[in-house]
Model the fold of this input.
Amino acid sequence: MALCIGSVSFAQTTNVKEDFKPSEVNQPGKAFPQINSDGCVRAQIAAPEAKMVQLDIGGVKYNMVKDASGLWMGESAPQDEGFHYYQLNIDGASVPDPGTRYFYGAGRWGSGIEIPASDKEIYALKDVAHGLVSELNYFSVITKAWRRCFVYTPPCYDKNLDQRYPVLYLQHGSFEDETGWPAQGHANLILDNLIAEKKAVPMIIVMDNGYAFKAQDDAAGARPAMAFEEVMMQEIVPMIDARFRTLTDRKSRAIAGLSMGANQTMRIAMNNLGHFAYYGGFSGTANYPSASELNAEIFLNGAFNDGKKVNEQLKVLWLGVGTKEPEPFPGSIGAFRNMLDKQGIKYVFYQSEGTEHEWLTWRRSLFQYAQLLFK
Amino acid sequence: MALCIGSVSFAQTTNVKEDFKPSEVNQPGKAFPQINSDGCVRAQIAAPEAKMVQLDIGGVKYNMVKDASGLWMGESAPQDEGFHYYQLNIDGASVPDPGTRYFYGAGRWGSGIEIPASDKEIYALKDVAHGLVSELNYFSVITKAWRRCFVYTPPCYDKNLDQRYPVLYLQHGSFEDETGWPAQGHANLILDNLIAEKKAVPMIIVMDNGYAFKAQDDAAGARPAMAFEEVMMQEIVPMIDARFRTLTDRKSRAIAGLSMGANQTMRIAMNNLGHFAYYGGFSGTANYPSASELNAEIFLNGAFNDGKKVNEQLKVLWLGVGTKEPEPFPGSIGAFRNMLDKQGIKYVFYQSEGTEHEWLTWRRSLFQYAQLLFK
Done:
């Protein structure tokens, strides 16, 4: 009978493995949502008067089924390992699932779920020395707005008061914000674990917000100009160097970003090679979304035209992408790599096996990239 | 017509002042919920197929009204100034409002709203020097569990590397957690502003989680024993003193808490007077919920029996409560004050005008209490 209710319902079919466990990012004490060993998500919510409740995950809406007590339950098809944003739909209202903690992505604070990954140890909370993640509010003169960044300082930072540290500037993607890397990205745990195993140099990581628009004096309806590069170079970097015990030479500064952040930080790196010696593009490049052949003489004002010079200046040029990412990601990254090859520019290319344009790709990218920095 | 739908609907009555503005704690770009100058809350959500949608705030459910496009809207009665938790009910499902940021309280992550307060300047984000709020994960041997605290370090902490600072241990209430004070409590902004005006001494504030239970070897069904005092004294205080540049004498340590936290921290303070010289109880005391006369000879093992000694040991004994708080708060605090008076113990008593057992009472309490510390 349950199967009659929804056209795409997977609920209560005999194919669902009954080894569901609560998601790791559930609210304290909440039993649902759950995940089984196939990566199926099972949601549950009390909505006694509702006509239709759906689990909306991975671009698919799965009809849930109501029991006699008014409790709705339903399962998704298997999901990729890693972190996913999702929501519930209750009689047409798209709302967060009250069972989960909330994350900023897809342009909203909403539900997230964690499908245990084969390599989840790289971002697990382990009994190693832990760095701090510090929240810093600052007023930006360029944007005439309050902004916020999170700063990871390594475990030894508070002990070795006469030591200075290299800095990685690490950016989120579109419709995300400065909370992405410290929350669902687990940047702090990835570095804690790498530093404990001596696979990464102790470093500071600065995670800011890539959305920055020039304050406008006239409200003539003009679209506000993007100003993230100016905010980064004129406000964020000087503020971090003034407040934290940083090394300030170019060989002690790295920059990286994911998706939109990869695009932004590639521009920032290549426009400011006096300040950065390491670049990482996680699922993105500055030619996004085009897969067309790049002309090195004109792309980014010829920043990659002199391959020998780029090889001298960039100690690491790093690119990564998930094997399941859709276009335009593989195509635009491929076109960029072709240009690098043609110019004889060295780079590292990493593929995250079985992951989409999602956070497991980027956790793995940070894990790989951070090991190459400042060495 | 709209008025026919719900028995307690305030929607679209002529009494509602039409000067609504978005709440300060809305998600970026979200126009709803809104608040008018009477403190009425107006919520809005698209739920085209729903039969009944309610705004559930302050213990009252207000029926919302659907327009032709499937958008539901409704208003609450005037709310007290300050911060309130709330939720929406959609055909019987209690869910967060997708318009707001989310806060932990009432035992869940859910919606919050901020009714602008007459004295909101005390916790406003201003153009003054800002301290850091740092997140620290640590493993607790006593509870055999990962725990987390937030640590506020004052603006000068990163500059004056040879200076040590006094510490305030500041606790949340029941069904809240370590995020309460740094998020809805604005402890960092209150201190930033007080320090900028030289009304408070630069201090470190440690905000931990008051729920701590002894790890049990046998699962014989025994209720786990509360272990917060042991965690505080044996794990948190030593960890903070090892990691941060603290002053460690008793006159450089204060402790305070709200509601359940007031009860817990009074016990910790009085059991450990060798470690603390300042106590603050915000809307709570250790005799909660009883309003019965206290016998100083036996209450807390006679900790308040020798009034002269208590006066020597506690440099500040501070109590606060909101004038609108219901029983058992005024009664139990009153009984405690009667005992202090009888024993000749000096204390400060503060009343927050027009506020309930909610965060504006506690923001104001911190604002008052912090000015008296370490002087």
Q: What stands out?
A: Residues 7-116 of chain B form a domain with the Immunoglobulin-like fold (CATH 2.60.40.10). The first helix of chain B runs from residue 187 to 196. Chain B has two domains: 7-116, 121-370. The helical segments of chain B are 187-196, 228-243, 260-271, 307-313, 329-343, 359-370.
